[in-house]
Design brief:
Blueprint (H helix, E strand, L loop, with lengths): L2 H23 L3 E4 L2 E4 L6 H14 L1 H27 L9 H8 L3 H29 L4 H25 L5 H21 L1 H17 L2
Antiparallel strand pairs: 1-2
Length: about 210
């Protein structure tokens, strides 16, 4: 198999896996000191890093393919959980309430997750490629951070509003949005050296093995 294609498949698989795990983790709101986040905060920012890498190396078309694949599998997971939820439980199984509480199909959460993911990731990939068309191979940090700032802003605002507006109110809701957004952006900044090295290594590997 072509090395470039092989690397794309690995990155795309990691991207979709991170998305699915994050969506499950996001059903729990967590509190770290005065800050309110959802459980997806641990892993979901890495989906943006992976999308950045795919967009930088393979372009918008391949990034869009990965994003659409992730969207379809996330939707499939949600409807699979719904099917399991409404199927009668075995007589001796006592975990129905726990299952519904964690993995139950909540239309509002599903809508929030899918719409925020799709809008945010598409913007992230589009902005990165657009900046690259102007800068060429220079200023990688500008396109990595610029795409994240815009993509994460859209993702965080859409998800928080659709999923929790009215459930979380007032200052707590504002805290939730700002904390999640700032955290994700700062994590991208902190991991920038690793992202740089990963992109450089992959470009070198693909070029060497053509």
């Amino acid at each position: 198999m072509n090395k470039k294609v092989n690397c794309y498949l690995v990155l795309s698989t990691l991207f979709v896996g991170v998305l699915l795990i994050s969506n499950i983790a996001a059903v729990k709101l967590i509190s770290i000191g005065p800050f309110v986040l959802d459980g997806g905060a641990y892993l979901f920012p890495f989906s943006y890093i992976l999308c950045d890498i795919i967009s930088e190396i393979y372009g918008f078309k391949k990034a869009k393919t990965s994003i659409i694949l992730g969207f379809c599998l996330a939707a499939l997971a949600s409807f699979c959980f719904l099917a399991v939820q409404i199927t009668p439980a075995a007589p001796n199984w006592e975990g129905q309430e726990a299952f519904v509480s964690i993995l139950g199909f909540v239309p509002r959460i599903v809508l929030a997750s899918l719409s925020a993911y799709f809008i945010g990731e598409m913007l992230n990939a589009f902005v990165l490629v657009k900046i690259k068309s102007k800068t060429g191979e220079k200023l990688l940090w500008v396109r990595l951070l610029g795409s994240t700032i815009i993509g994460e802003a859209a993702d965080t605002l859409v998800f928080c509003t659709v999923a929790f507006y009215g459930v979380i109110t007032g200052d707590e809701f504002l805290n939730y949005i700002l904390t999640g957004y700032i955290y994700k952006c700062l994590l991208e900044v902190a991991l920038l050296p690793i992202t740089y090295k990963a992109i450089a290594a992959l470009k070198k590997y693909i070029s060497y093995n053509r």
